[in-house]
Amino acid sequence: MRLKFSISFLLLSMCVLGNGRYGRHDTLHIYNKIDTTYIESYRDWLNAKLICVVRTNKFSITDNITQSKLEYSINTNANMGLGMSFKGIGFEFQYNPPGLNNDDSKFGASKQISFATNANGRRFIYDVFYRYNQGYHTTATFKVPVDTGFVYEHIYRPDIKNTTIGAELVYVVNNKRFSSSAPYNLTQKQRKSAGSLLVGTFGSLYAIDADSVIFPDSLKDNFNQEVQFKSAGSYTWGISCGYTYTLIFGKNWFVNLYTLPGLAIQQYYSTNAFDQQSHSNTAIGGILQSRFSLGYNKKRYFIGISWTNTQYFVDNDKKSSLNYKNGCFRFYYGHRFDLRKVLKRRI
Questions:
Q1: Which residues lie below 8 Å from residue 175, measured CB to CB, with a gap of 6+?
Q2: Among 120, 151, 202, 323, which residue carries the largest CB count within 10 Å?
Q3: DSSP 242-300
Q4: Hey, CA dihedral for 189, 194, 199, 203, is it positive or negative?
């Protein structure tokens, strides 16, 4: 069963975003000031946009002794929707149109539920989220017996469930001249090229559950019994440091690159599918968050695409590795409306 609706709430905190436009020479006043030769704010405008969103969610298990690897993915689908923001508060409504995603016969159906609150503010970027996914298929094809012989198909596991809960807080060092909102939320405009060092912290809970062993029957001999689990996951906390840069060209065109690697303390756990024995281990793991955005941003309208991806690396006593990642591709087209002029006319 595929969930037809998805709603995301974007709560853009007023204390994070600052106070819009200031004089061009206010950069010496270090509190609540931006350099308007670099940043133009549309926070007091009504931003309305059409969006198309495609989310990905994958995890892979690697036997570090036999070097065998298996990767699962949800059946990704495109959602259409509307988004609006004004005075630092915004929301998005997304809908899975019937007839647009017709590949359940090939990959199987996936159920997706997500809730999130996030903001790209002047000083801070934050993200708090909950995601639930059910129904995964193998990214590779395997030989499956049929009446006429064998065919190669993706193995579908409707019983595999994944729950992810997490939070992240990132400090933007160059918050006077670099806008973290301009390339992604489009509530501001980056007028000149600029970049910033990023320093952050994050924490998450990741859990995988299945009714039986996670591996297909045809692959059981390729993996040691110690790593043949029916449930696994990790608790993660860490720190990160990276860099982001927005290049402005042709006056209104922009491209942004964002990379934020991190180190984390991870508590790994798993339950064996055969003897029901539980296992846990604490180790140092890694995380890599990357973003990309390309678009055209004028005062009255904007258009563009963006891609975000977060990948976690978890080792279990050097016997196996559990890696998981999620991503989001967006296409958007929007208009801005200056409500201040409308209110003045009415007054």
A1: 34, 122, 123, 196
A2: 120
A3: EEEEEEEETTTEEEEEEEEEEEEEEEEEEEETTT--EEEEEEEEEEEEEEEEEEEE-SS
A4: positive
Q: What is d(CA 85, CA 47) in angstroms, rounded to the nearest whole number?
A: 5
Query: Do 290 and 260 touch, CB atoms closer than 8 A?
Result: yes
Token pair belonging to 19: 């106070």
For the chain, the structural domain boundaries read 5-346
Residue range 1-56, pLDDT digits in tens: 444 444 444 443 333 333 333 334 343 333 347 899 999 988 888 999 999 999 99
Q: Which residues contact 178 (CB under 8 A, 6 or more apart)?
A: 38, 39, 172, 190, 194, 195, 196, 244, 246
- The pLDDT assigned to 128 comes to 92
Q: Please give the Cα distance from 340 to 344 (Å, whole number).
A: 6
pLDDT at 258: 97
Residues of the chain whose pLDDT is less than 50? 1-32
Of 160, 168, 232, 175, nearest in space to 204 by CA: 168
The one-letter amino acid code at 278 reads S
The fold of the 5-346 domain, in CATH, is: Lipocalin (2.40.128)
- Pair 54, 80: CB distance under 8 Å: no
Residue 96 is predicted with a pLDDT of 79
State the pLDDT at residue 207: 94
Task: Work out the burial of residue 42: count CB atoms within 10 Å of its CB; fewer than 13 is exposed, 13-18 middle, 19 or more buried.
Answer: buried
Nearest residue to 215 via CA among 269, 133, 160, 151: 160
